[in-house]
Amino acid sequence: MSGYPTRSFPSHMRQPSLGPGAGSMGQSPALVSRVNEKKAELENLKELRDLSAAVASQMEALEQKLATLSDGTEAIALVFANWHNVLRAINMASAKLPKPNPEAEDTTPLPQTLVRIPTEHAPALQAHAEGAVEEQKSG
After folding, report:
1. CA-to-CA distance for 33 and 27, rounded, in angstroms?
2. Nearest Cα to 114, choosing from 94, 136, 134?
3. What is the rounded CA–CA span in Å between residue 103 and residue 121?
4. What is the residue range of the signal peptide feature (predicted)?
5. CB distance 93 to 111 below 8 Å
6. 96 Cβ partners below 8 Å, 6+ apart?
7. 8 Å CB contact between 89 and 114
8. Is the backbone of residue 137 left (phi > 0), alpha (psi -120 to 50) or beta?
């Protein structure tokens, strides 16, 4: 006896020994049709798996697009929320303007500028503006 333990398989797991050449010829037609059905089912399941993977990837892409859309919507909501403050500031600035006098010439003071300009380029712009003013004086 060799060093390997012997085990016996249950009868439903053992294949009958039909001898050489007794492959598909000895199988019953019901068994062959059942095997073919299972093969077709396997192919359908593989196709379903592939289609499910494609749907999952499309859903992930849709989720990313919706997240971007949600972020954009929040930004727009913040802008709309600030419009009330902007309009109130314009109203306050306009209320302090003197009423135009039809007898006076066009010397009506203009309102204070309500637009803020970033000043990171201010020194270069100021030098350019001063250069333009000097050219006009000398020209």
Report:
1. 10
2. 94
3. 42
4. none
5. yes
6. 111
7. yes
8. alpha
CB 98 within 8 A of CB 108: yes
The tens place of each residue's pLDDT in the chain, 139 residues long, gives: 455 555 555 555 555 544 444 444 568 999 999 999 999 999 999 999 999 999 999 999 999 999 999 888 988 888 888 888 888 887 887 776 666 666 666 665 665 666 666 667 677 777 777 777 677 677 5
Q: What is the CA radius of gyration of the chain?
A: 43
- What CA–CA distance (Å, rounded) separates 118 from 70? 29
Please enumerate, as own/partner, the contacts of 88-96 that have beta carbons within 8 Å and a separation of 24 or more.
89/114, 90/114
What DSSP letter does each residue of 48-106 carry, written as one string?
HHHHHHHHHHHHHHHHHHHHHHHHHHHHHHHHHHHHHHHHHHHHHHHHTSPPPPTTS-S
Tokens of 121: 């380029």
Rounded-to-10 torsion of CA 20, 24, 28, 33: 160
